[in-house]
Amino acid sequence: MVTYILYLVTTFLVLGCGFVFGFLRKVNEWMYLRKLGEKRHFLPPGDMGLPWAGKMLSFLWAFRSSDPDSMISSFISRYGRTGIYKTLLFGKPTVIVCAPETCIRALADEKDFKLGYPETTQELIGRFHDVSNAKHKRLRRLTAAPITGSESLSRYIDIVQEVITASLDEWASLDRPIEFFTEIKKAAFKVVMHVFLGSEETDDAFAEKLSLLYTDVNQGLNALGLNFPGSSFYRARKAKKELEKIIHKLVDRRISMREKNDAVDRTMDLLDLLIAEEDEDGSKLDKEEIADILHLYLLASHESTAYAMMWVMICLHENPKTLEKAREEQVQMLKRRDPTKKGLSIQEIKQMSYLSKILVLKVIDEMLRRVNIAAALYREANTDVTMNGYIIPKGWKVLASLRAVHMDPENHIEPKEFNPSRWENQRSKAGAFIPFGAGSRFCPGNEFAKLEIFILLHHFLLNYE
């Protein structure tokens, strides 16, 4: 009898909770859709989740679990392969696009879409991310110049090799294990500091201080905006304020140097280029703008390349046959090199850059597809947009899920497998491989990041285990 009563109570509790949650979801959906009038009938399928929280718990849990694709998979299984779904994320009605054609449209269509990062993320990134498209294109051309194209990259290949080889030697000499991500992040950030701030700002202690602050900022980018002591967002805001002070001092000092002509013989770095930049009418960027741009670039490049370096090493060591093939490829390349030359040259890399032939480059692309360093990008609808037969209302956020595209078996056979050979004579549909985004805001540092990864692999495969 007692067992029966417990069974009834449990059943009623489960049914009651199910009813309450179902009712709350309906109320939440009604709250956001009632203002749309007839347009609500043309919204994509989906689930707005619970009031206030929406689907944030599912979104965050997916990336903290062993199955980061679980949330998108649940939408596909419930609503079919529409490539577009409605939900509520970061407190805003959001449309998730997760097919090649929908992602490309959202990322490349500057008329219908603008950047739409969550407010907490915008605060940590700074103002530069949301400038007009015209100003962004001009500043992008300027800021991408030092790290794009063979001629520009050749200026930094020696410093990258110097930092990477010194780091590898140091780690190999230790009689203890190291945490690889922590150490490679230090090396990658030292390179970034050299490119953006010049050799005089690459002091190890200073670089480590900035790196620790940027680590805190990065951890707050996709956190819930809970601003109380101990929370990720609170620490991120605190770190951002300290970084602002440091970067403003750097800008002031560099401007003073240039006014005194103390920098005449220096190689122009990103900070110099920003200070010297002029509009068509001769107006220059103010100190705030220069500091914001510098902060954004340091933030964007702080951990991303280090994550890529870590994951490419993990992927190779989990696939020993590929590791040995890649090592043999580098040995053969070394045999072809002029014995009087030491290290890689940009000409040598250019000669090797036929993706259908070079295994190491295929390994890098496959790592980018499989790991997805940037899992998603954010936009916002400037107007009511029709996509795949559905309406994205004006003002709604759009999350372009790059990971969903790369992990879809309709785009890549057996997507969970690490298989560099898939890139041999690969003819994927447009938008099926977008690790650096698309459109005019395509990541400007992609060539430089690949160069760093290639140099790491080259020297590691030849000289270390």
From TrEMBL:
UniProt KW keywords: Heme, Iron, Membrane, Metal-binding, Monooxygenase, Oxidoreductase, Transmembrane, Transmembrane helix
SUPFAM superfamilies xref list: Cytochrome P450
Binding-site list for heme: C443
Cofactors required: heme
A Pfam match: p450
GO MF, one annotated term: iron ion binding
Chain ranges passing through the membrane: 6-24
Family: Belongs to the cytochrome P450 family.
Recorded GO CC terms: endoplasmic reticulum; membrane
Subcellular localization, as worded in the UniProt entry: Membrane
Record has Metal-binding as a keyword: yes
Bilayer topology term: Single-pass membrane protein
Any Gene Ontology biological process: brassinosteroid homeostasis
Protein name per UniProt: Beta-amyrin 11-oxidase-like
